[in-house]
Amino acid sequence: MTQDKKKKKTRQQAYTLLVQVGRKDGDGLPDEATGGALMIYASGIDEAEAVRETVAILKQADLNPLDVTGYGTIEEREAQGHNIEGEERELMQRALDENSVVVAQLTPFYHGEESEDESTEH
Asked: In the chain, which ranges are E strands?
C-alpha cells in the first residue's frame, strides 16, 4: 500500500488554466464589469480533474465560470516555448504542495473586452 500511495502522490501535477467568468450576484467583480478572466494554477492527477476542482471552487466562491482553457503542466508549457518566471513557478509549486487551486490574477472585462483579450492571450 505504501508504494501505491507514493505512486499516486507523484502523479499530481500543477496545471495552468485560464477561466472566463460571467456576472453573478456577490461575485466581487467591479460593478461596471461584464465578466472577467482568472489565471489559475490547479493541482490534479490530470487536467480534467484540475478543471473540475477549479470550477467547483469558483462556484462555491459565487463566481460564474463560463469557459476554461487549459495550458498544461509546467513541462508542457516549457516545451511550447513559454518563459516561466520565479513567482509563477512558486505559485504552481504551491498549488501542487497544497493540492489546491491558486488564483494568480483576476482581470475584469468591460463591455466586450473578452473577445479582444482572448485573441491576445495566445
From this structure: 13-22, 35-44, 64-73, 101-109
CA distance 56 to 122: 26
| Mean pLDDT of all residues belonging to the chain | 86
Closest of 104, 103, 100, 34 to residue 66, by C-alpha? 34
Distance, CA of 21 to CA of 29 (rounded, Å): 10
Residue 91 is inside which H or E element, if any?
Answer: helix 86-98
pLDDT in tens, 66-78: 999 999 999 999 9
Q: What secondary structure letter does DSSP report for 46?
A: S
Amino acid 1: pLDDT: 47
Model pTM score:
0.81
Distance between alpha carbon 5 and the CA centroid of its chain, in Å?
A: 26
> What is the pairing mode between strands 101-109 and 64-73?
unpaired
